[in-house]
Amino acid sequence: MSSISPRNQTEQERLRPGQEKKEEDGGYGWVVVIASFLINMVVDGISYSFGILLEPMKMELQSNTGSISLVGSTLAGMTMLTGPVSAACCNRFGTRKTCILGGLISSVSLLVSSYCNTTISIILSYGLLGGFGLGLMYVPAVVCVSQYFNKQLSLATGISVCGSGAGTFLFAPLVAKLVGLYGWRGCNRLDYILNF
C-alpha cells in the first residue's frame, strides 16, 4: 500500500496505465490536431467514397446492387459499432496504440479485399474487418485532442473533426480517378498505402 496520499501525488502518478499526461494548450498538441485531422480525413474519406466502387465491383463480381451495397453498409455500421470497443481500448492501452492497431487492421483489410473474388469475402474483409479497423481509429482520433488542450479544446476539436469533411470532399474524386486508372482492386491497394 502506498504511503502517498492522493493530494501529495503528482499528476503523472495519478494516471492509469496507458493514460497520457494532459499537456497545456499549444505546442505538441497542434501536431496531434493535425494528425487527428488526417485520421478523420482518411476514415471518412474511405467510408463515404464506397459508392464509387459500387458499379465496378458489381460488374466484375456479377452481383446485384443490393449485395454489393451491403459491403459499404457493413463498413459504415461496423465503424460506428466499434465505438465501445475502441473506447475501452483507449482506456486500457491509450489512444496512440489503439489508433495504430486500427490503422494496421484497416490497411490489411483493404489489401485483402483487393484479392477477393466473391461478395461474401469482400463483406467480411472490407466491410467487417475494415470497419472494425476504422472504428479503432475513429474514437482515439477524436479523444486524443482533449489530452492536450484545456482552454482551446473547442477550437482544436473543431479543426480535427473537419478532417471528416475534407476526406469526404477529397476522396471522392481521388477514388474515381484511381478506379478509372487501376480498377477497384488497384484503388483498394492504393488506399491500403494511404491508410497505413
Helix content: over 70%
Shape descriptor: elongated
Number of domains: 1
Give the strand content: under 5%
CATH topology: Growth Hormone, Chain: A
Question: Would you give an account of this structure?
Answer:
- The chain is mainly alpha-helical.
- It has one domain (25-56, 69-145, 164-195): MFS general substrate transporter like domains (Growth Hormone, Chain: A, Up-down Bundle).
- It contains 8 helices and no strands.
Topology of this structure?
Blueprint: H1 11-14, H2 28-48, H3 50-61, H4 65-81, H5 83-93, H6 95-113, H7 119-143, H8 153-195
In short:
The chain has 196 residues and is mostly helical.
Keywords, separated by commas or semicolons:
196 residues; mainly alpha; Growth Hormone, Chain: A; elongated
